[in-house]
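quick q for whoever's on today - can somebody do inverse folding on this one?? i tried earlier but teh output was garbage lol. tokens:
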């Protein structure tokens, strides 16, 4: 039986994040720390009062001081982590030629900078343990593009390159690093699309449906497991055939 690792999940209060937390807990993972930015409602449905206070931490991951404080709080709660799952991210809608520098930078930071800072903060303890799993979150739009989200596409493409570099740097220490290039799921950012736009996405998806959060959870569990130990530097396209 695979030894279950101590893990940190960022963006854990989002639709996909909370779903992954619930899925892993259902498999018996009992050393999970969660980061959220502003809204903790979904996490309070998963953790009771004492558990929430012990396992869930508010932090702005674009602020390196807050990331360092998060590290201290997670270490005090569950000890050194063996798995880091970066699900934190955000997007807005704007055409590239109308987008302000501030908006572009904000979304790049919310996705790419947060991934870098959390990895940088937690990699040293993985190196000391000579083992670890890093799972970063990219998107189908990093490969297929989409109208009105050039900043998000750029950030998610950057995560792919960053993760591949990590996999090479960390392989000598027994640490794997992989990226999830997620398609359109039935929770999270999909709720920002109009019903008509959602129907259009389904028509462009060969499986004719949105993904389920359990399908992300299953892939995460595999990459955390002993069975996933020979998988590193890979981009896992989970998109129902939207991008081939």
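ok took a stab at it. sequence:
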């Amino acid at each position: 039986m695979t030894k279950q690792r101590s893990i940190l999940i960022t963006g854990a209060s989002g639709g996909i994040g909370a779903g992954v937390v619930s899925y892993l807990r259902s498999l018996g993972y009992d050393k999970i720390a969660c980061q959220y930015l502003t809204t903790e409602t979904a996490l309070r449905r998963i953790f009771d009062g004492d558990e929430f206070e012990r396992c869930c931490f508010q932090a702005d991951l674009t602020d390196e001081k807050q990331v360092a404080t998060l590290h201290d709080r997670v270490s005090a709660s569950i000890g050194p982590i063996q798995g880091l799952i970066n699900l934190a991210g955000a997007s807005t809608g704007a055409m590239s030629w109308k987008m302000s520098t501030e908006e572009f930078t904000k979304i790049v930071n919310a996705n790419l900078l947060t991934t870098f800072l959390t990895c940088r903060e937690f990699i040293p303890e993985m190196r000391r343990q000579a083992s670890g799993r890093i799972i970063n979150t990219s998107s189908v739009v990093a490969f297929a593009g989409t109208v009105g989200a050039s900043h998000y596409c750029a950030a998610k493409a950057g995560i792919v390159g960053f993760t591949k570099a990590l996999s090479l740097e960390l392989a000598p220490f027994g640490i794997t690093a992989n990226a999830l290039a997620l398609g359109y799921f039935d929770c999270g950012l999909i709720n920002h699309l109009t019903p008509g736009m959602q129907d259009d996405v389904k028509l462009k998806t060969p499986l004719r449906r949105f993904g389920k959060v359990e399908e992300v959870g299953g892939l995460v569990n595999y990459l955390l497991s002993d069975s996933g130990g020979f998988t590193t530097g890979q981009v896992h396209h989970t998109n129902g055939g939207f991008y081939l």
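fwiw The chain is about 50% helix and 15% strand. also The CA atoms of residues 206 and 241 lie 5 Å apart. so keep that in mind when u check it
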